[in-house]
What does this fold into?
Amino acid sequence: MANKEQEPLIFIDNTACERCYACIRVCPTHALKVSGEEGYPELMPERCIGCGHCVTVCSPGAIEYRKEKDS
It folds into this structure.
């Protein structure tokens, strides 16, 4: 079986993100980190368990669950 990259469970819209980092503080698995010069949160999909805490605390609505993928 080929090792393929895991699809992320959530997506972060950097255009809506206010960089308050509430999502990073609330993540129980430390699946979010600050990256790049702009300092936006970035998801590490291999750590994400899909609990939704980050989606709940994101007041500007910049984080949402992945849509169903076409099969």
Remarks:
- The longest strand covers residues 32-35.
- The mean pLDDT is 88.
- Residues 22-26 form the longest helix (5 residues).
